[in-house]
Specification:
two-stranded antiparallel sheet; seven-stranded mixed beta sheet; 9 strands; 12 helices; Helicase, Ruva Protein, domain 3; 2 domains; alpha/beta; Rossmann fold
């Protein structure tokens, strides 16, 4: 008899299938039922079509399926895919994509979920930035994202201008999305316990960006933050072959002090600056 995840601990279910965490994949399974239920509610309040990334053993999946119209799960581990298929494969609102997040066909996955889905999941640390920027690329095709990430990443996403954590994530993603840390997550809810604490972040798309402007803005911010301690004056001359007079004129028009460093420029200043810079590949 199959033991349903909704009536047993997640850890017991994983052990029933002979599954143990794989260290090289950075697997830390969520095993706290109350938190999993709360995370599902955080996603479902935004919409009832869900694209779940890294479904694992289905700790979040089982609660999403209770209320969602459709849940499309992405998982790369074959043993976990077998568990998910056996536990939930007969449900009409469930679909499994067996594949690597690093190589995910985002357009196809979003289309499978349908209805401008909410993207949700417990993100592997090594793929967090890749997933977040994929969300940015597909922001018009989704209602937003609810992700469990390392606490350090949450702090970088929500960092204030001038702080130590302020950087590319805060500038680029903070310009495209309203970002909020909605839960702090202790290490005790995972099996095995990770070395770091986690947090849940919510990203809701803003409406005022054209794709061409975003691509330009993103490339400028990423290029200049590679040397975050160098002043804008120096970097603009280097990357765009501008004269000192041209730098002064451009920064004056953008309302940005050329003597500031990248970490001292607010997102709105970056947006004005990127829009005025000459078209050039700065990647």
């Amino acid at each position: 008899m199959v033991l349903s995840a909704s009536h047993s601990s997640q850890q017991a279910l994983l052990r029933q299938y002979g599954i143990r965490p794989v260290k090289r994949r950075g697997q830390n399974f969520l095993v706290d039922t109350n938190l999993a239920r709360a995370l599902a509610a955080d996603s479902l309040v935004l919409g009832d079509h869900i694209l779940e990334l890294g479904a694992g053993g289905g700790a979040l999946t089982v609660h999403l399926l209770e209320s969602a119209r459709r849940v499309v799960c992405v998982e790369v581990d074959r043993n976990l895919c077998a568990l998910l298929s056996r536990e939930y494969g007969t449900r009409e609102n469930f679909q499994l994509i067996e594949g690597d997040l690093a190589k995910l066909d985002w357009a196809a996955a979003l289309a499978a979920a349908g209805g401008r889905p909410v993207i949700s999941g417990n993100l592997p640390y090594v793929l967090t930035s890749k997933v977040l920027f994929a969300l940015a690329d597909h922001r018009r095709q989704c209602r937003g994202g609810v992700f469990m990430v390392q606490k350090e990443v949450a702090e970088r996403l929500c960092a204030a201008c001038g702080s130590r954590s302020y950087g590319i994530l805060a500038v680029v993603l903070g310009s495209l999305f309203e970002i909020q840390t909605i839960r702090q997550v202790p290490r005790s809810v995972f099996w095995p316990r990770p070395e770091v604490e986690s947090a849940v972040v919510r990203l809701l798309p803003r409406d005022s960006w054209e794709d061409s402007e975003y691509r330009r803005f993103s490339s400028v911010v990423k290029a200049l933050f590679q040397q975050r301690r160098k002043k804008l004056r120096t970097q603009l001359r280097h990357h765009f072959a501008l004269s000192p007079a041209d730098v002064d004129a451009l920064c004056a028009q953008a309302g940005v002090d050329p003597e500031r460093r990248p970490e001292q420029v607010e997102p709105a200043g970056w947006r004005r600056l990127a829009a005025l810079l000459p078209a050039k590949d700065v990647s």
